[in-house]
Amino acid sequence: AGTLDQADAIRAKRRQVLAHLDSLTQSIFHDMFGRDEATAEFGDVAEIQGGLQVSAKRAALPVEVPYLRVANAHRGRLDLAEVKTLRATEAEVDRTRLRKYDLLFVEGHANPLEVGRVAMWDGSVAGCVHQNHLIRGRIDKQRLLPVVALHWFNSVAGADHFRRAGRTTSGLNTISASTVRSAPIVLPDRGLQTQFADRVRQIEGTKSRLHAAVAADGELFASLQSRAFRGEL
Known about the structure:
By secondary structure, the protein is α+β, with helices and mostly antiparallel strands. The chain has seven helices and 14 strands. Helix 1 (2-33) runs antiparallel to helix 7 (190-229). It is globular, with a radius of gyration of 21 Å.
């Protein structure tokens, strides 16, 4: 029991550290840019694109591709445990194919606080497109680093635009591509943007190593439980 308790305590500690790191980048963003005024609209620095409607009518179309949906795009992170596919035309694929660092805005949600939440595409699924409940923002990186925009739109100040502009229809809160295009955005000094991106990269590296350690902890704990059950501890 003592060995199991120690292993479980280690798992809990790592999860606490991960939870702290999840909020750390947003805290750093607030410290660096929290007093900045929005001086542009997002459409000034990004190309905005709607996604593909999913329907049974697509069954006869020529190309099968993976696509992202709302369940894959959380606030500041992706969940790619289940990536579905749809059929599309070549033109549709060309129009909606995702590139690394594209931002994905949730277009509709029952919870008004979740409308407009943003994730950044990591390029990990080749040829991936997005459905119409996600709106894509492809940023001109010479003017604004995507990681800065990601944290701005997931901050209280950045998300306020979507909360105010959202419409409610049949219990679903929605925004449109024009809402995303007109969203106010900060354009900080380029050197500060780079500093912030470097700090986020360091934190994400630490998180990646911790996630791997947590997964290993889970395997070890399961093994110890099995041994304890057999009376081998």
